Amino acid sequence: MNKKEIGFLAEELVKSYLLKSKYEILERNYRTKFGEIDIIAYDRIDDAIVFVEVRYRSDSSYGSPQETVNYYKQLKIINSALVYIKNKNLKEVNYRFDIISVTEDNKIEHIKNAFVPSNKLIYF
After folding, report:
1. What is the Cα–Cα distance from 80 to 27, expressed in whole angstroms?
2. Would 18 disulfide with which of 23, 46, 51, 116, CB 3.0-4.6 Å?
């Protein structure tokens, strides 16, 4: 399998996990000029829009999946999220940025509020 196929399967696993956890999937692979958001979901329990970055790793020799979401990737996700919020005319919405990692043995780790935007990050 190539990277694209593996990424698709990881996103499918995460989608199933989110649906079982009572999330509503709003968008998948949402693209903007800034980048892509893997999954946008609505968390009914927390009443929040969740921008999810899915990470897959077969091993941890290059760090954990979460560690690969660096400053520049966060910037792309945050700016893409702002485009989504603006385009959907969402005012006073609760939102957060989560990272959900999938390992080779299909273990899922969900990190809520994995990063928080700051004024330094947003260039929209």
Report:
1. 12
2. 23
What's the whole-model pTM score? 0.90
**Among 113, 104, 95, 99, which Cα is nearest to 18's?**
99
Q: How many helices (H) and strands (E) does the chain have?
A: 2, 5
In this predicted model, what pLDDT tens digit does every residue of 59-118 receive, in sequence order? Answer: 767 777 677 899 899 999 999 999 999 999 998 889 999 999 998 888 999 999 999 876
d(C-alpha 16, C-alpha 70), whole Å: 26
Radius of gyration of the chain, Cα coordinates, nearest whole angstrom: 14
Domain annotation covers residue 106:
yes
What is the extent of the structural domain holding 70? 3-115
15 contacts 7 by C-beta, under 8 angstroms: no
Of 110, 109, 38, 40, give the one whose Cα is nearest residue 73.
38
Number of domains the chain contains: 1
DSSP single-letter state for residue 62 = T
